[in-house]
Design brief:
Layout: H1 4-22, E1 45-51, E2 56-62, H2 67-79, H3 81-88, E3 93-99, E4 105-113, H4 124-145
Antiparallel strand pairs: 1-2, 2-4, 3-4
Helix pairs in contact: 3-4
């Protein structure tokens, strides 16, 4: 078992290592990107990565506080589902009504790696191999798809 400080240190070390590993990789537009804190350009649309002692997840999270607007964003992603799955090379799980770790409502489209343990350094190559190709594919999808959301910008 890890103390809170040890767990925080290991998590930070993993995300730093992943960020350094991805830093030289340009985005779909050929520009440098902060892959760990990816900016979609749309408020309330986030690409989130999570890893703990049980699993790892990469997801598109729609967090608009207005349920109706959040649903509009989700429906727009549904329209692009085939394009998304083609870019990713795999189907992802679609959750129109989920909650985050703080109980806030959101919609989520994502994939999970089981088992995974961010606290075991020997698991990091598998975690990096999980995140890297999917994040790059998600970026390639977003380079084309983001324009479909122009009407929903606030």
């Amino acid at each position: 078992m890890y103390t809170k400080a040890e767990a925080a240190r290991l998590r930070q070390a993993f995300w730093t290592a992943l960020g350094q590993y991805l830093a030289p990789v340009p985005n779909a537009g050929g520009e440098t990107t902060n892959w760990i804190n990816y900016k979609t350009g749309l408020r309330h649309v986030h690409f989130r990565m999570h890893a703990d002692q049980r699993h790892a997840r990469l997801a598109i999270e729609l967090t608009h506080p207005d349920a109706g607007i959040r649903e509009l964003f989700y429906e727009q992603f549904l329209e692009l589902q085939t394009l998304l799955h083609d870019a990713l090379g795999e189907p992802w799980t679609w959750e129109p009504a989920a909650t985050d770790e703080h109980g806030q409502p959101l919609a989520r489209i994502g994939t999970t790696l089981h088992p995974a343990n961010v606290f075991e350094r020997e698991s990091w190559p598998a975690l990096i191999s999980f995140f890297k190709p999917r994040l790059l594919a998600l970026d390639a999808f977003w380079a084309d798809a983001q324009w479909s959301f122009e009407a929903l910008k606030n």
